[in-house]
Amino acid sequence: MDSGAIAFDEFLLDRRDRRLRRAGEPVELSSRYFDALALLLSEPGKLVSKERFMDEVWRGVPVTDEALTQCIKTLRRQLGDNAVSPRFIETVPKHGYRFIAEVVRQGPDERRGPARAPMPDQWRAFWLTGAAGTAGGGLAGLLGGLLYGFAASARGMGASTLLLVLMALTAALGLVGGAGLGFGIAGAAFVPSSKWQWPVFGGMMGGIVVGGLAKMLGLDAIGLLFGHAPSDMTGAREGSLLGAAVGYGSWLARGTTRLERGLALGALTGGAAGALIPFLGGHMLGGSLDLLARQFPDSHVRVDGIAHLFGEAGFGPLTQTVTGAIEAAVFGAGVVGALTAVRHRARRRQR
Question: Which label site among 252, 262, 297, 300 has the fewest CB atoms less than 10 Å from its CB?
């Protein structure tokens, strides 16, 4: 194999520096897995037998076929590929593998350009990711408002008006929250690392900012209107935990373009955070609405009906845990699902 660089799709493999980059950002690969990818790229379109992998990658070290299978599986995950409908690595059953995408060999001068000047693509990805997170959060908020709107306005006068008000409020909160997390996660992509800590940190910081700002403005508004406001409404603490969880979900979904997988990962990580928040003394939207209803008993907001479904007279620990998990799961699915949909569309345009 020569010591040049090879570009394919949005990737650049540089044998001299032993780096793989995606749109200028490093992609983590172990030394042996890097060698396996370099071997595939050295002969695009041709079958690379299992024996060649053993000889040229493992260099005679005795390993089982499972080691090669795991290697190819990891490469596919890092490239965003899959075995069912491969874009890059095709399996030739019982014989080996073949690299099927178009490749372009680059010289030293060409290699420096894409690796060191990724900013236009990065900024485009930043705005798309932020916008997707905003849209996904807004849709999740709208669904949450619909759920709590029906529950809170099931009885009494002005039920339809209350439903519309709650839907508008939660949709706005979802848009703001989705924007904070979306742009926080997008900002983490500027760090030259693909480790999970950065999307988690980006989501957490976005959650802190949005949660703190929303609580401050919300409490100020309620205090101005009614003279006092509950002090335990959802805020930066809840936002940081939910943001970190959704950021981790986005990292888990980074290699997939399947919408259902993105939705599932976002729901799983977000739901886990939402269930944990009440145990830490925090409140999600349902708990905050209950605080408002108890602080202002003459209001038309009532969420006791939800608590009755779980055998509790009021919005107790079980009700808060279940509703918090559902709220956060819907929000996480909305944000991560939207990010996955944007990623899927971008990769389809690149084909």
Answer: 297
